[in-house]
Structure formats: structure tokens, C-alpha cells
Amino acid sequence: MAGVLLLGSRRYSSWSLRGWLAVRLAGLDVTEEVIPLKGGGKTTEIHARSPNRMVPYLTHDGADVWESLAICEYCAEIAPSLWPEDRIVRAHARSISAQMHAGFRPIRQNCSMDVERVPAPPPEISEELAADVALLSRTLKSALLRSGQPTPFLFGERMTVADCMYAPIAIRIHTFELDVDPVVKTWVRTMLDHPLMREWYELAAAEPAEWRLVY
To answer: What pLDDT is recorded for position 118?
Structure first.
């Protein structure tokens, strides 16, 4: 193996999912290590091993890479098809990927990822959350309809970094039945049916019962 990908519990760790998808799509030869998450940011095992005290954390062929978007960028250096080929389309894809990395906080705070909690109790739809969901829907729809016709993935026929970054959002839309455009709902179904996403769900289900968090 050329490296290690450190992850948090697959059931809950949305940032781990983003990095894991990019690593798998790029075909990196790494060992995956999963550390069970503890509530309230108290997972000291991760603090001791990761430079930013969070997951995912990738070591590969002499490189140390942390932060999901940085891992995605690193993977795209190895597998350039992880970004759209066209410069202008690639700029769009990079922009919405960075937007996901920095934004959509109301959705992330009110609709936590749990791949086994379906259906989840609906969140209280505050004005702030409704505005965030509307922004999300517009953002994803603009990518899916960029060519004039809906594409299976955000920028074409295959997953790119943008899809990796929004994969946990697809899970949240499904789990909480968020009110998004029908074009976006179709993308959600496509994402959840992707073999890598199905594999993530299967691996999450196989994790020890004692890793489950109490709500």
C-alpha cells in the first residue's frame, strides 16, 4: 500500500465520505483506517493523528493531505478527469465545490448525516434553513442544466470532485426529504445508486453497534 486514508465512522462522517470518494475514483492504493466518532468533537484518537484534528486525513506516496477539498484536488492531480476538461466548466465546478466546503451551514447544522436514519424526523424549517435549501437547489440545478439538458452527475456523465463534495448533501436531501427541484431529486437518486455510494452504505452498516451515537 502506498498510504493511509484516515476516516471517521462512515455512518456519520460527511467529510470522510467526500475524501473517500475522491480517493476511490482516483484509484489510489491506500489502506483505510476508521476511527469511531464521539459526540461533541471529543474523538481524541483523531486529534492525535491528524494535523487539523479532523478527518479525512490522507498520507500517500510521501504526501500528507488534510481537508476534504485539498484531498479532492490532490486526487485530481493524479486523475485529471475528476475535474471537467473545459476551463470554463471547470471554473464552475471548482466554485460550487468551494461553496460547499465553506457554506451551507444551516443545512449541515440542522440535517446531520446519518446513512441509516431514514426517514429522519423532519427538521424545523426556519427561515434561515429554508433559504439555505433554496440556495442549494439553485446551485445544483445550475450545474445539472449547464448544457441545456439535465446530466446524470453535476458536470456530465461521470462523477467529478463536485459530486464528491455534494455527496453527503444528497444523503441529507434523501434522509430529510428536503424541498429541492425535481432535477436535483433525480441527481440524488443517481448518486445514491452509484456503486461507490452503495459500498459506503454497506461498510457503514457493517460497523460495530457500539460505534452508534445516541441522539
So the answer is: 82
Read off the C-alpha cell for 159: 462523477
The cell for 89 is 466548466
> Going by C-beta distance under 8 Å and a sequence separation of 6 or more, which residues neighbour residue 140?
96, 154, 166, 169, 180, 181, 183, 184, 187
Q: H helices of the chain, where?
A: 14-26, 44-49, 68-78, 87-102, 105-110, 127-144, 161-176, 182-192, 195-205
> What confidence score (pLDDT) does residue 40 get?
64
Strands of 3-8's sheet, edge to edge?
Answer: 31-35, 3-8, 57-60, 63-66
The DSSP bridge partners found for residue 4 are: 31, 59
Residue of 152, 141, 204 lying closest to 10 (CA atoms): 204
Give CA separation, 63 vs 18, 57, 58, 71, 75, in Å: 18, 11, 8, 10, 11
Q: What is the mean pLDDT of residues 165-170?
A: 98
* Count of residues making up the chain: 215
* Bond before 56 cis per omega within 30 degrees: yes
Q: What is the pLDDT of residue 139?
A: 98
pTM comes to 0.96
Asked if omega into 84 is within 30° of 0 (cis), the reply is: no
Q: How many CB atoms sit inside 10 A of residue 69's CB?
A: 20
pLDDT of 215: 65
